[in-house]
Protein: Tropomodulin
Amino acid sequence: MTTPAKLYGRELSAYDEVDVDELLAKLSQEELTMLAKEVDPDDNFLPPSQRNNYACEKDPTGPLNRKKLIEHINKQALETPDRPEVKPYVPGVIRGKKWIPPPPPEKVREAEEQITIDLGDEYEQALGTATQEEIIDLAAILGFHSMMNQDQYHASLLNKGQPVGLGWDGITKATKQKVYPMDPPNDTDPDKTIDRVKANDQSFVDLNWNNIKNISDEKFEKLFEALKTNTHLEVLSLVNVGLNDRTAQLLADALQANSSLRVVNVETNFISPAGVVQLVRALLATTCVEEFRASNQRSQVLGNKTEMEITRLVEQNPTLLRLGLHLEYSDARHRVASHLQRNIDRNCRLQKQARASLSLRLPRGRPPAVGVDSNFFNLTPPSVETTTPTTDRRIVEKPIIDNESISDKKSVTGDGKFVLAAPLDINPEPHSTPTTPEPERRLEI
Structure:
């Protein structure tokens, strides 16, 4: 049960019948001024000078002069005398009562006490006679990283020996930076590559203009115009070449007409978020681009509206497998990642189905039947036009020519003679020793 609010010992409901205007009429001007100072009305329409309790009665001295104000503050600080010290300062003499920290609790003191563990005589002797380098190696093996620096830790793991002058009390020096050689400049000739793209060279499948400076817009126009009719180029890499929105629009038009590109990389350029959206929209017109990268552009943040538009376009693309863009919002990242994973799974299923259908179309070797001579299936059939007299099982003086039946049972020797294969030897007992086949017979034609 809650206690009712009270004012001056009486409940608030007792003041409902009090006439506030009648009470204010009985107050004098001084009492009204004091009441106004004590009450802070919550009225946003009143100026701050009338809502606060402070009321300055001094006349204004004019506009603010910051320089004079700072000079006045400094002058007052210099002219104000310091407070006199009760006891003068003497070096080495403690003035007043020295602060002594309180003793730690009992549990903390017990935790700080050294814990003694009986390791046995063998381990005690080994640790007692171990050198400092061996102790450091043991600490590295046990994972005590805070007891050593990075050089000691890696030297222990690689068994290189501890650095000279570095121990438990040694001075840790900065590790020298590893100097890596600079990447060689890109020596690709843009004019030659444009000619090869325009000529639709079958051997030219990878175009790399990365980090080539001062490429004119005319060369970009020629390249993108040639891409519309090229059918062999698969990789287009234009990293740090100075692409802008105008050239990005030309690239988007080229992507819509091209049908062979699989990888498009335009990272580290000056493309605006609207230009990136145009490139992603152009990927819907082609069904061959599997990887698209356009991060690190002029605007680091694309914005919520742009990211949602890119997400919508990516979800409509059934062939895109990898996307190189920095998306700030988690909803866009999750939706894009889920759709790309579905595309990858669908692509894997299609590849498995293609391999399975290809394996069904390929001819398979026929295994030899049980009880049939294996030489029967190793014969090389002659041309269909040549006829060889033969019978069903044995040779007679007047053979019956049957081209269709003998095409599967005859072969040609080196001297131009036909050889009939041995007749079928059906063994009723397949697990027994097969009978010896009859010798081959030759016919002179």
User: Anything to note?
Assistant: The longest strand covers residues 206-208.
